[in-house]
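Hi L.,

You mentioned the student needs an example of a multi-chain input paired with its predicted structure. This one should do, with 957 residues in total across all chains.
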Amino acid sequence: MNKPIRRLAIFSLALFGVLMLNVSWIQTFQAESLQEHPYNRRQFVESLTQHRGSILVGSEEVAYSEPVGGDSEQFQRKYKNGQMYAPVVGAFRAGSATGIERAENSFLDGSNQLLAVNNFRDMLTGEEPEGADVYLTLNSGAQQAAMDGLESLGNNGAAVALDPETGAVLASYSSPSYDPSSVASVTETEQAAKKWTELEQSEQNPLLNRGLNEVYPPGSTYKVVTAAAALENGATPESTMAAPESLDLGAPLPNAWPGPCNDGNPDTLAHSIEISCNTSMANWAMELGPEKMHEQAEAFGFNQGPMEIPLDVTESSSPLETDPNILGRSGIGQANIESTPLQMAMVASGVANGGDVMKPYLVDSVQNSNLEEVKAAQPEVFSEAISSGTAEDLTQMMIAVTEGDEASGPAGAIPGMQVAGKTGTAETATGPTHNWFISFAPVDDPQVAVAVVVENGGESGGTLAAPIAKEMMEAVINE
Amino acid sequence: MTTEAPTQLPPIKRRNAELVMTLAAVAITLFAMIEAGLTRNGEMPASLFVYGVLFGGLATLAHVFIRFFAPWSDPLLLPLATLLNGLGIAMLWRLFEATGDTSEGSAQDQLILTAASMAVFAALVYFLKEPRTLQRYPYIMALAAVVLLLLPLIPGIGMTVNGARQWVNLGVTTLQPSEFAKIALVVFLAGYMVTKRDVLALASRQVKIGPLKVLDLPRARDLAPMAAMWGFCIIVLVIVMNDLGTALMLFGTFLAMIYVATHRSNWLVIGLTAFFGACALIYPFVSHFRVRMVTWLDAFRPDVYCTDEAMANPDSFCQTAGNSQQLVQGLFAMAEGGMTGAGLGGGKPGFVPEVQNDFIFVAFGEELGLAGCMVMLMAMALLVERGMRIALASKELFIKMFASGISFLIAFQTFVVIGGVTRVIPMTGATIPFVAKGGSALLSSWVMLALLMRMSNNARKPAPQAIQDEGATQVISR
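Structure written out for the whole complex:
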């Protein structure tokens, strides 16, 4: 009977061997992916008792941690100008985080590998380890202007401002916003959780950053892309195109006003942009054909997949349209064109930057608790969307939009400098029109490019969105 | 005639080594509590002295008792059991006393239960001088096992905890009779198979595929015990009581013992076929079995984990069945521990629902890391292998069957629990011997240890010297 007993002993040992191998596998090779699993909330809970790093705009701490005090070892996350920055900064709550609080969590809580040396030093000197500080690229003035402008209208909407030379995001506001302080309490957790659920379930969706994660039909602002495609393919600002009162594209496509664009004569490209002519631009799109239109849109960043800046950015789409009727409509930013406000700001900044679109980014630098820089943003070219000649031509055409004789967006003009802009009034399937304005200024040395969208404004981009864009540009330029 | 390795262990007592190792195990327990206390509350546990005196005293008493009443027994058994039991107490102290919440259980209760279990251990070692006497009552044992297993079904005293009907409420305390039923069953199987091993090994029919002999089938009437066992496990334990863990353990132990008795691998083939066949057969009909399988295979699927969105969906899996949150959170805890662990008191085992029961292993994984897990598994494996050694060293067939059966039961139970919480096999719900919270589990562990202890003493005891040096005198060893 000894032989089977020996075998049974070996089998028992094998059972333990399996357990040991499996435990080793989980605790070494699999550990990291399990720790970062989306269901795993340990990383955020742990940081309730850690001195989390701050998030700064300029030299101002807009999110910072303070000890709760008393017997508690916990830290309370506090927000300054919470509502203003919430669309970017997000909220750090018990068990979870959104926005930059989530995207840069490994720096804020000190777990990032780049902070290992500093953490080790702190451990040796007996200092309490602290997370790193994250410096944002935002410009407080522009952000304030975006919030004031959108909130005073009362409509939902979004505004994005970029530095055309670097791609730094100078402003990103989304209306409605919320106050992260109301959901971040670690002492009154029940109330905070209730408030969060309320926000999650609100039909206004205040947790959504519309600038980065909502897509809209861009309307006439997309004519800049169409014009760019035309100029890149041999047209000049003086090239003309038929511009009747209405085109028959399955259903009639009229202009924004009852009438043709140039008294019934073919209209120049420049004039079509200035007054925002629908029929001629639709004709341009059909003349250029689906491939060229598609190619130009992709050069500006459409269809390039989601981005991380480091917040997630939803993809904007401009499908290849072989049906000429749909292609015509897409030439004026309708049909199947869907764009985030950030994408249209990238279009404006590409024109401003001599044709090069820079990759947008929100984090300027990260500093550890000893004030040493551990990471700094490196501006990168996202794409060379158009030639510098095309950019120059487009700029001149867009200046006319704010200061020409028949300007469609004079409200975007800033006294004492030239502003290049483009209005947009996008038809929606359900409600009143969305009102757009994209622009950049000053023309001789562009410092800021913006895109503003007012949801269901029902008026024109020139009247509703342009004044907000103007305030934002001024805030950056006058700083 | 045989080239087998010698099975007889040298007659060395090594009781002093046992004492030193036992005290080391007590020391490890106390250090574990100190670490947990310092990490959690920044101070030494207030009751450390009491635990030291009581637990240390109990272990020392057990040692002294063995020194007198089972002096030839294996010196490793007691230290290993003390270590595992002590780590269990320390972890429960860290989970409950150190966090100030003892509503779900406490180390104090566990310590009292340890004392009671050790008393039963001592009594058993003292009174059961010859475990082979148990061989006389196989059918009584079988009856006892069945009655114990069925007790929870009696209305009024039976209780359902976490979906499994395996508890009995005795008014003053609750018991899990299956913990004792399995020991009775091992006694029965050992007794039954020793007498029937010849017929069980008999082949009556051959299954052939072409000219190839595939399998020898035993006589139909000899298949009966197998069939009865199988049917009982499936019908009563799985379908009626939802006690998959016990069913799996009993059937596994049964297969192991019939293999040891007959040395026929046919039995394994037949048994495993029957097992998997039964699994496939009941899969469509027994929903809690299906739930276990799904939560095992697809633990990370949103509608199995039951995320908020999945909960809101009326058609999702979690609206109709359980979820995998406990399992997944357990894996997260293990991952958090990494190689060296967060230190006792430094982790967040509270994230794992009901961590003090079946999932206590992941709390060790989180706070003691891979290193600690390895120590625990090694201790378990050593205990099992020492048990197998006792089976080899014994001369009587019944004792061989009995010791190897008990040892395999410990091994398999550990595998079923730890394998379940680390996703090697589906989660079935059972307790880690010596470590887990609860009186029944602890008591049955110490009963098994007492049986092994007594059998090892008898196996290693040198034959009595002849009184006269004449060589012709027959010596009767009892």
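You could point out the following to them. The radius of gyration of chain A is 27 Å. The longest helix of chain A spans residues 2-29.

Best wishes,
N.
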